[in-house]
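Final report, Chapter 2: Outcomes

The project's central promise was a pipeline that accepts a single protein chain and returns its three-dimensional structure in a standardized token representation, suitable for archiving and comparison. That pipeline is now operational. To close this chapter, we reproduce one record exactly as it appears in the project archive, with the input sequence first and the structure output second.
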Amino acid sequence: MRKKSFIILIICIFLLMAVSSCVIVRENYQTNLATIIMKHFTAGYGAFSHEVGIDIIEKDDYGRILFSFEASASYNPYFNYNGGMAYAYGICQDLHEENLLFGKKHVSYYDNFSYIGAALREDISPDMIEQLKVWNDWNKPLNEEKMVEIEAFDWNLPEEEREWEEHHTTLLREYLNVYDDCRVSWKSFGQDKTGKYLFHFLFYRKFDESDYASESEILRSFIVTFQKNSENEVEFIDYIETEDFYNYQYELAEIKEKVGWEM
């Protein structure tokens, strides 16, 4: 009897672990895919897991994943162009699983060209999705030399990589020569191996805090690289202005090459 009870207990524990593992794997699987968007797309910044929806759209013959990303912008009214949502599509080249219990922890993608974004879902056309596939060698053999592999983070970059102090904004305006009476919003794309930061800054007209900004409110968009000295003050390196507030893939690639960005 004791032996039978012990066996039943073991089976119950195994089933409980299996169910828990499925949930954890699912959450980490989603986190891995969100990591790709968070490294490139400004409008997805700051979201938590319950504010993000990710759906697998398609897989190619080599295991690449085309997925959609939908994030609530309720946490950040400066990106509420359409009542609080932002949309993107991304392609993951490969996922790397560490173990069954904790799921997939590393993600591989093509730097700069792994996403397309928009304020409205209908703004992402079939041609844009097809271009995303072309950028990512869809249905071609995997090419590890073109991939970047990083450890997935929990919806946001580490605090030290995305911290921006308000008094630095005055220096930023001087550096970019932007003195209009406008607000500034920012998103960090992280640091490289040498300590350089990469940020996206949006300058937009002031509006009432209770209202949402429309896309037409944005005046200028910049991608800026800088370092911080021992006093935690910024030292600007270079910048590039973008015409599109959502899709700046080529600008990202250009400025990273100019400053010697090292992943």
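Archive annotation: The chain has five helices and eleven strands.
This record, like all others produced under the grant, will remain available to the consortium after the project formally closes.
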